[in-house]
């Protein structure tokens, strides 16, 4: 059932995280920190559709090597109820080599919006609570006090300094009953942002050491196994996802539900592994590139710069790439390259993209094709327009593989489906997805196809052939446990085999990863010992 729209007036608020002062040190021996904001907005008066819905969260940018960060980060929230809510703010220290550490936390109560007693919060300072700070933070703080005893004794301001963060909360608009965005839940309205993450976990391209953002020209040798500098992308789209787009994971095997709900020993370990993999690949380290779209998310619709950035992150139509994507309930589009040429099961999968969220808006795969804008005007509805030439399979001048890709959205077509065995979105909702994407990616021709259609199979075949001709020609390395595989419809049998290995005979136990063997020892120690004895004999 779609979520019923709100029958009362709701508000659009802008939260600004200005700066912080005298944060504790977190890094040794520099006695500095790489602080960023993690915020969560809870609105008790707006009941979620399901108790397992992911919370409304925001992640700010990182200021490096400072204890006095000046972020000026904005978070615009739509559909905020008059009754208000509670914003939980955590200041974290980014540490890519290990887990991020907590520097401090606080709560901001927002109540009675629109009432006579409501006043905007203007650059108010809130003290950070130091409880539950990370162990490395406490160690660095203690070491700083030991190494600066004179300053600690003589400087009264140093002794009595407070860790504070400066925050503003303003009401900048309202949504009346019946308006399109007054959907009965709070959502991130802006600003429009994008990130491109580079993961060293899959290495580099064979024969090259290309850095982030460089054009990857040249090909590896035929059949060569190489590591790839893996790219994972995020785009914050505008407005709430349509209420119809709401899908839960499909519990098609016994091991799926424990993985998502973190129940049982196996479920807890695998759920933690998925979160860790997601954090590693979507890491906000120094290599991560990011930006903000220059348009007012409240007053105007997305511009073509959003479409251009999306195409740029997808490498236009270069190399015959295919992508796996997830659209979260908070309008975050996450995607990375996938396809038959990728044997990695580490991260390019729907479960990993969604960070093991129980519910998402939509999921599947897509590809980008270049079209001849002068050959015809396809509607881009339920199928492709045969009157428009596309690359692939046709050779179109003025673009890859011979020339640089054109930079205008009118030259491209997005072919998108719902091929996700993890969430299995309904094909009847593809037109709803199309309408939402058309609004957020103006100027781009969008074609939605059912994952089982013959037309899509033919398009994928053409894309794979283009990959062989124009791509790097590299097979990527397999990493990780079979349990972190995609659970896509084309690979469901692989997961079933992985599950049977978990139940296992002795022949299958020998081929399991260390994680799987460790889980087996915890759950069935006697069976594992007997299997090990049989293998030794």
UniProtKB/TrEMBL annotation:
Protein name: C2 domain-containing protein
SUPFAM superfamilies: C2 domain (Calcium/lipid-binding domain, CaLB) (SSF49562)
Ranges of Basic and acidic residues composition bias in the record: 49-65
Region annotated Disordered, chain positions: 45-65, 374-408, 465-521
Pfam families: C2
Residue ranges, compositional bias (Low complexity): 481-492
SMART domains, per the entry: C2
InterPro entries recorded: C2_dom, C2_domain_sf
GO process terms (BP): positive regulation of gene expression
Domain of life of the native organism: Eukaryota
Biased composition (Gly residues): 376-385
Organism: Filobasidium floriforme
Domain C2: 1-133
């Amino acid at each position: 059932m779609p979520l019923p729209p709100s029958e009362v007036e709701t508000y659009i608020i802008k939260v600004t995280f200005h700066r912080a002062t005298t944060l504790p040190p977190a890094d040794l021996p520099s006695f500095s920190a790489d602080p960023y904001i993690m915020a969560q907005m809870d609105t008790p008066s707006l009941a979620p559709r399901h108790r397992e819905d992911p919370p409304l969260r925001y992640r700010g940018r990182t200021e490096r090597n400072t204890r006095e960060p000046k972020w000026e980060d904005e978070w615009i929230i739509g559909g905020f109820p008059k009754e208000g809510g509670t914003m939980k703010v955590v200041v974290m220290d980014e540490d890519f080599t290990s887990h991020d550490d907590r520097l401090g936390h606080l709560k901001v109560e927002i109540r009675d919006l629109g009432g006579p007693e409501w006043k905007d919060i203007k650059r108010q300072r809130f003290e950070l609570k130091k409880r539950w700070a990370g162990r490395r933070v406490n160690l660095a703080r203690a070491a700083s006090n030991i190494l600066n005893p004179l300053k600690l004794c003589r400087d009264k301001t140093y002794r009595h300094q407070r860790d504070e963060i400066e925050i503003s909360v303003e009401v900048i608009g309202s949504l009346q009953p019946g308006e399109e965005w007054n959907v009965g839940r709070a959502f991130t309205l802006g600003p429009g942002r994008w990130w491109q993450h580079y993961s060293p976990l899959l290495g580099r391209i064979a024969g090259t050491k290309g850095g982030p953002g460089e054009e990857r020209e040249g090909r590896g040798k035929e059949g060569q196994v190489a590591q790839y500098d893996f790219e994972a992308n995020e785009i914050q789209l505008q407005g709430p996802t349509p209420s119809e787009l709401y899908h839960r994971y499909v519990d098609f095997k016994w091991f799926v539900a424990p993985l998502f709900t973190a129940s049982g020993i196996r479920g807890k370990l695998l759920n933690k592994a998925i979160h860790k993999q997601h954090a590693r690949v979507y890491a906000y380290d120094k290599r991560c590139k990011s930006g903000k779209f220059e348009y007012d998310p409240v007053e105007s619709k997305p511009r073509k710069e959003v479409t251009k950035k999306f195409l740029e992150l997808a490498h236009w139509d270069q190399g015959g790439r295919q992508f796996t994507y997830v659209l979260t309930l908070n309008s975050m589009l996450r995607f990375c390259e996938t396809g038959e040429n990728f044997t990695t099961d580490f991260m390019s999968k729907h479960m990993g993209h969604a960070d093991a969220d129980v519910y998402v808006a939509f999921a599947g795969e897509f590809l980008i094709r270049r079209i001849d804008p002068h050959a015809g005007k396809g509607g881009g509805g339920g199928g492709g327009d045969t009157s428009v030439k596309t690359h692939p399979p046709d050779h179109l001048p003025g673009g890859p593989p011979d020339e640089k890709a054109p930079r205008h959205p009118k030259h491209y077509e997005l072919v998108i489906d719902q091929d996700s065995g993890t969430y299995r979105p309904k094909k009847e909702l593809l037109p709803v997805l199309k309408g939402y994407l058309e609004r957020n990616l103006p100027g781009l021709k969008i074609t939605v196809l059912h994952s089982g259609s013959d037309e899509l199979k033919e398009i994928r075949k053409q894309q794979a052939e283009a990959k062989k001709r124009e791509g790097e020609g590299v097979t990527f390395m397999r990493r990780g446990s079979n349990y972190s595989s995609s659970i896509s419809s084309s690979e469901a049998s692989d997961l079933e085999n992985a599950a049977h290995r978990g139940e296992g005979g002795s022949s299958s136990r020998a081929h399991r990863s260390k994680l799987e063997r460790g889980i087996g020892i915890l759950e069935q120690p006697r069976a594992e010992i007997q299997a090990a004895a049989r293998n030794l004999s």
